[in-house]
Design goal:
Blueprint (H helix, E strand, L loop, with lengths): L2 H14 L3 E10 L2 E9 L6 H11 L10 E5 L10 H7 L3 E10 L2 E12 L2 E7 L2 E6 L3 E6 L5 H4 L7
Parallel strand pairs: 2-3
Antiparallel strand pairs: 1-2, 4-5, 4-8, 5-6, 6-7
């Protein structure tokens, strides 16, 4: 069974559990082949939802050759891949990396304007926007910015 079929099965289960299937990948690593499913929902997924998805999908993908299967949430800084990802991230600060230098650089930061006709547009200054062909971009991900106050516990000290 190819990964594409596993992704179709995963999409049905995600729909059944009212989750969003973010990605499915089969990756060879030094310790073996990992079949990974990334799921999410607005507000995030709970540990028991990850476990339920894992239990539901495992017997249905036994024909995929893998050593380990993982089901996880992709995290707040997950790469933007789909049109839905780009629409959801419009206005957020992003980091963008290209395969080849553009104007002498391969890494850019700015506010995501959006995905327009196959072009990723970011605002790098008050009057400055840069457009990149999606095929020329290695990765785009939100920048997660936090400070010391974000790291403080909300639990009162006694």
């Amino acid at each position: 069974m190819p990964v594409k079929e596993a992704a179709q099965i995963a999409q049905k289960i995600a729909d059944e559990f009212q989750l969003e299937l973010i990605d499915v990948e089969l990756v060879k690593e030094p310790t073996g082949h990992f079949l990974r499913f990334y799921i999410d929902r607005p507000g995030g997924v709970a540990l028991n939802e990850l476990e339920n998805f894992h239990r539901r999908i495992q017997p249905l993908v036994e024909r995929v050759e893998y050593d380990y299967m993982e089901v996880s949430s992709p995290g707040a800084d997950r790469p933007l891949k789909t049109e839905r990802d780009f629409a959801r991230a419009e206005g957020l600060a992003v980091e963008l990396k290209t395969y080849r230098p553009v104007n002498g650089a391969k890494q850019f930061t700015g506010d995501l304007v959006g995905l327009r006709d196959g072009m990723i547009v970011i605002r790098t200054g008050p009057e400055e926007e840069i457009s990149f062909a999606k095929k020329d971009v290695a990765i785009v991900r939100p920048i997660i910015d936090f400070d010391e106050a974000d790291l403080q516990d909300d639990v009162p000290v006694e």
